[in-house]
Amino acid sequence: MEPVLLTADGFAWSDRVPLILMALYGVLSLVTFIAYALDKAAARKGSWRTPESTLHVLSLLGGWPGALVAQRKLRHKTRKSSFRLVFWLTTILNCGILLWFLFPFVRENVKALTEGLF
Predict the structure, then answer these.
(1) What is the pTM of this model?
(2) DSSP secondary-structure letter at 7?
């Protein structure tokens, strides 16, 4: 069976992504959004800030959708280019790992592409 990523009515990942994984991403996104909100509030007050490494780890673990929403809605962590670069790297890495585990054809294609390299 060929994998279908898009259908007429949207994404067809529900048969491939376990419900618990979708819930985990939702919870991590909420936690990450809250971490950004607390950091934004602390920045305004001049008090203790959330370390950037903590925000990046949360994104890497799957909270990147919440981080992206927080960056847009709260207008937080959008100016520092080094932070944005690491954020996008953690997002790409998380998505790559997710694709690797959920879709066998991704593993097969990556192995085929890297066979000659190693």
Answers:
(1) 0.77
(2) E
